[in-house]
Amino acid sequence: MKEIESLFETYKNAVFQKDVEAFLSIFDEHVRIFDMWEWTYEGLVSWREMVKGWFGSLGTERVVVTFDEVQVEAAGGMAVASAYVRFAAISEQGEELRYLQNRLTWVAQQKGGVWKIIHEHTSGPVDGETMKVIMKR
Q1: Closest CA to 100 of 75, 134, 49
Q2: Quick check: pTM over 0.85?
Q3: What is the spatial distance between Cα 38 and Cα 43, in angstroms, rounded to a whole number?
Q4: Is 75 helix (H, G, I), strand (E, B) or coil?
């Protein structure tokens, strides 16, 4: 479904450009985020603060986001999308410095003809022996 796929494009372009407003444009005002790094963000106001902090912490680095094995199921005005996500930190010279991966699930709802993410869940599997999150697939 092209409309949902465009959310992925907006996400990765906004992250690379460190564009807070473009990033937030795909999320509903009342979005609920189950984040890998924090328990929960409730609503766009708290999500905005996280995004501003994330982008601000990057300094001169950029982040290249890639999605793998994207799956989208839509019915009526609701859609569920899942993917594996790779976040790669890139230096000013274009050199990949480091990366991590996680799993992503979105629930999107069509409101006034526009698709918005109403729920995001990110996760990574936990190693049963070390109890550490596995950050690379």
Answers
A1: 134
A2: yes
A3: 14
A4: strand
Residue 28 token pair:
């509903």
How far is C-alpha 61 from the chain's CA centre? 18
pLDDT digits (tens, 9 = 90+) for 60-111: 999 999 999 999 999 999 999 999 999 999 999 999 999 999 999 999 999 9
Write down the CATH number for the domain with range 2-123.
Answer: 3.10.450.50
Give the up-direction half-sphere exposure of residue 10: CA atoms within 13 A in the CB hemisphere: 17
Q: Quick one: CA dihedral 123, 49, 52, 132, positive or negative? A: negative
Report the helix count and the strand count for the chain, using DSSP H and E: 3, 6
Please give the Cα distance from 41 to 51 (Å, whole number). Answer: 11
Residues β-bridged to residue 75: 78
Two tokens, residue 92: 């000013």
Q: Scan for tokens 């924090």, then name that residue.
A: 38
